[in-house]
Amino acid sequence: MASQSDYPNAPITEAIIDLRVTPADDVDRGRLNLNETSLPDYPKREELFEAVGQLALGPRGGSASVQQTPLGWKFSNTDQKQIVQSRVNGFTFSRLAPYESWEPFRNEARRIWNVYREQLSPSAVARIAVRYINRIDLPGDSIDLKEYFRTSPEIAPELPQQLDGYFMQLKFAYPEAGGHCIINQTIVPPTRDNVVSVVLDIDLFRSQDLPPR
Questions:
Q1: What is the tens place of the pLDDT at every residue in 23-33?
Q2: 3-class secondary structure, 149
Q3: Could you say which of 1, 38, 39, 197 is the most buried, measured as most Cβ atoms within 10 Å of its Cβ?
Q4: Comparing C-alpha atoms, which of 143, 92, 98, 140 is closest to residue 113?
Q5: Separation between Cα atoms, residue 70 and residue 26, nearest integer Å
Q6: Residue-level pLDDT at 164
Q7: Is 119 helix (H, G, I), strand (E, B) or coil?
Q8: Cα–Cα distance between 198 and 193 in angstroms, integer?
Q9: SS3 of residue 45 by DSSP
Q10: Average pLDDT, the chain
Q11: CA 88, CA 20: separation in Å to the nearest integer?
């Protein structure tokens, strides 16, 4: 494996730890509201809903309807850089830029996960994932991706070599974590003039029933 580098100005726009759970049969949805007693440092609260649409067609026309079901809550800390989702089907912790390092990110996720686990008592963890979304602004109006990325699209020499846009997705097994990794890479609208902005989205996950602890 290639050696690890720590960057003084990490291009991470969002780091995510996500656990999808098998809820208990008698789950109390009221306990999803974690910040009333357990998370006073996440004062901003927003309810989450799951929307299900239905379309009916008949000889005289059709009708459409949308039904919303409460799914859980989203909480933000005072500077809105850290966000928690407490849902019936899982738990998500996000850290927005600036990202510090793995240890404080992991420790805060673990602290709040323990609150969620004690409140909801899920039967099992069905999927666990760590995801990093990077936005890399490269100088110039036109760049050679191979100068910056070890993995990039290969263009046949008979084709024009300048890309106006692309989307590349790779999925492969990651035995060291007992799971899989998905890497998405794409060009997005630039943040300022004379740069090319590339999103590098790395999602490492394991789908396997695990004990909640």
A1: 888 878 888 88
A2: coil
A3: 39
A4: 92
A5: 16
A6: 77
A7: helix
A8: 14
A9: strand
A10: 88
A11: 9
